[in-house]
Amino acid sequence: MSELFDAVDALVASRSSLPPAEERKRLRIAHGLTLDEVAGALKVRRATVSAWESTKKPVEPRGPEREAYARLLGQLAELYPAPVPATFTGAPDPAEVETPSAGPASEPAGAPAHVTPQVPASDLVDPAPAVARRAASNARPTSTSRRPGTRRAAPAATPAGDTDPRFENGPLAVVDVDDDGQVLAYCTGGLVLEVPAKSLPSLVEWTLKEARLGQPKLSGPGKDADPLLVLTKAALERYGLPTMLTEEERLAGRLPEGHRVVKQLARAEWKLTKRGFGPWARIYRPAQGSERACVQLCIPSWNALDTRHWATAGQLPPAELARLLGVYAVRVMTPRGSTAVTGLELMTALHPATRASEPDADGKRHSEHNPGSLGKDPVDPAPCEAPDGHPLLKDLPRFHVRGPAEKLFEEAYDWARPMTDGECTLRHLVGIDVNMAFAAGANGLNVGLGAPTHVTNPVFDPKLPGSWLVDLSHVDLSRVRVGKDKWADLDAGLLPSPFTPKGERPEGPAWYATPTVAYAVELGYEVRPVEAWVRRENGRYLDGWYNRLRDAYLATMADLGVGADLAPEDFLTAMDGYKDRDPELAIVATAIKATVKGGLGKLRERPRGEGWRPGEPWRALSRPTWRPDIRAAVISRTRINLHRKIVKHAAFTGQYPIAILSDCVVYAAGGPSPLDFLPYRDGKPLPGGFKLGINPGLVKHEGTQDVLWGEEVRERFNAPELNLARYIKDGTVTDVDNGE
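Now predict its structure.
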């Protein structure tokens, strides 16, 4: 009887139901499987699997192969259910979104914009190829290390909120070529489109007319984001581009003007920006009325995705790369270049230079200054704010070195001291790191919006942004005010000065940004500036920028299992190995942090070759966002925020830092955890001191080493003040610390 049953089962299996050929192909691609992999698993030839997926001459599998093939397709269909055709189905269920939310969709501004024509879904491409699928990276099981009681976050590849119908396929696509030679565009949310374009000019045309890629503007006066295409090596070969740049091209940062593809674009009346056809190329046509057309290319194999900030993103498969960049684009903005460039462009996107005026007598609107922005014209810095080589300083003697009384020098901490005998009796050196310290320094900061005004013998105003020449050498850290009418006696020899990056006490008048001078007043000391450059027109220009990046960071860390409201012990546990839970999302978190630091660094961008000589202007000076005073104010406030916490901690515990590097502080402790020296009472941290948590301004565990390790490396390099904060993370010291 059992043999009869087996025969019946085999007969039923031989007619197992199979989906249509195009659905078979969709499911295979959705899981990132090649024809060879499927053929190997089913023990058939590659051509056989290709025939099963052919829409022109479909071939039906038979025998035991059909049963196995049906089983494979059935499992894939559970992972990647077929969406409604041509509809973006990646928006998360609001009930599944973990707080804090990722915020509204983000997109850049400040570049040629376009309005994507509205085309019917059936006109995108063939109905069969225009199918959506869930990205393979989204199908990985959720990490079991997610803390109990935490709601599962929304799929990271999907945008939050409603989708603009003009950009229903997301902000970007990764263009690749499959085994059959078909060009595919992997979009965010797991969407894949077949691309009919045979040349790069036609690819640009298809992107603007049919792909429905891009993002809505971030602010009312802004511009919609241009679509971004990421070209894999296979796509580069398909469109006649080199997969790698030659050394000469790499140094130039672009292809030569005579390259065949560059000529193709010119013949099709497409233009390139001044930076040419490089790793981040922008292809556009001049505006036609109110409509402008522009597509940006990102080429990872040309080092568009710097490994310092994007790690191995450039080597990911197309679906996973689309997911990673899609998360960044939705939560921050579509990348416009390096993370530094994107950080700067985000400022402009949130505060465009101009806006449309109210209608005049004839009913016409005109471009006018947008209040709260930096405007459309650059402004000169104050002489003390200008970096060496600036045209304002061209009359200085050639080898003149400006001192503190001539130059504003607001930089992050790089300070260390020898350990005391008492600290040497402890077992551990524990490093804590301030989360997104410079973003926290920008939050709520009042900065100048216009040109500076010079004043002599001014009365200091802590609410007025500017640079002040004042003597702060009288501030004595051995006795400081730590609260209203509350003073503390400290060991000043164990503390860095808050007024210099190296922690040295000032010796006379020097230039300082407003937050630094305000802190001297906060500590209980009188200040009498000699002169100042102040900015009467000011505002909290960076607040929206901070909020955008904070929300992006918190949402990404929540996806990685690190919530914003965890108890200290739970937070340390959640942070342990968080990058391994989802390596691609961990890269996004790193890129967000790099966007903060890089964007602020761009505010004082230095010359980049191009034959520049001291005293001559360089390209960055033509930008309204070249503002060294804003950068100095953010760094000043960040350093002061850190020093304030250090003073509060010392006054309460009697513990002093051994080393500080930027936003990392090292203390000697009896145990290996931050909880072994941070004063928590009933789960509550010291008011105004260090607090463990993922929010910007709170701290995380950076690393722990033995006290003997610290003494050994300092003795080995004969450097009693070697900055141990530089090496506390992994303990590796490769050379003498030269401060670079």
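The chain has a mean pLDDT of 86.
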